[in-house]
Specification:
The protein has 187 residues and is α+β, with helices and mostly antiparallel strands. Helices cover 33% and strands 26% of the residues. 6% of the residues are buried.
């Protein structure tokens, strides 16, 4: 782009004038990205992001039982309103038409998925845990010490769990004799 001497002087004068006005306190209002959006009839609730162990604060706007907006909580001490790309996409977790809402099961060796009920799935999971625990339970180690553990099951907790849920998860795992117990926030 070719700039003439006259255009250069005009632009320079405008820049000097704007700087002088800004120095007098007559600056234009600046739009802030941290200004929260307001929804007229939405209920505002604070929560914590479920993606990692950092625990960033979120403000969720819900209207009629549906999530209409999720944004960073500017009053939260950890993230102060900022969100990573995963946290920014949290709205899609709540409003995703492709997300499975029913239990899908594919039998061993099968090439197709079947829809099953939640009652069937929970009963099947419990039966498989019981069978695996019975098959891999170790009562005593090689030195003859009583260890009461199962080495055929591992549990992995998620960062979406709060302290109380983590406590219950670890207590259930320990009661089953599970020794391979890990938490997603540490991985």
């Amino acid at each position: 782009m070719k700039v003439s001497r006259r255009t250069f002087l005009k632009l320079s004068g405008a820049a000097v004038g704007a700087a002088a006005l800004a120095g007098l306190g007559l600056d234009a209002p600046v739009a802030s990205a941290a200004t929260p959006l307001r929804f007229r009839y939405a209920r505002e609730t604070t929560t914590i992001c479920a993606y990692c162990g950092v625990g960033c604060g979120l403000v969720v706007h819900a209207e009629g039982g549906e999530v209409v907006n999720i944004e960073g909580d500017p009053d939260h001490p950890i993230n102060k309103g900022a969100l990573c790309s995963k946290g920014s996409a949290m709205y899609q977790v709540a409003n995703n038409k492709l997300r499975l809402r029913k239990v899908k099961y594919r039998a061993p060796g099968s090439s197709r998925w079947e829809e099953k009920s939640w009652d069937w799935a929970i009963t099947e999971i419990a039966a498989r845990i019981k069978a695996t625990r019975e098959a891999t339970f170790v009562d005593r180690d090689s030195a003859g010490r009583q260890v009461n553990r199962t080495e055929g099951i591992a549990c992995l907790g998620g960062a979406a769990l709060d302290n109380e849920e983590c406590y219950l998860h670890s207590k259930l795992s320990r009661a089953l004799g599970i020794v391979y117990l890990e938490h997603q926030a540490r991985i």
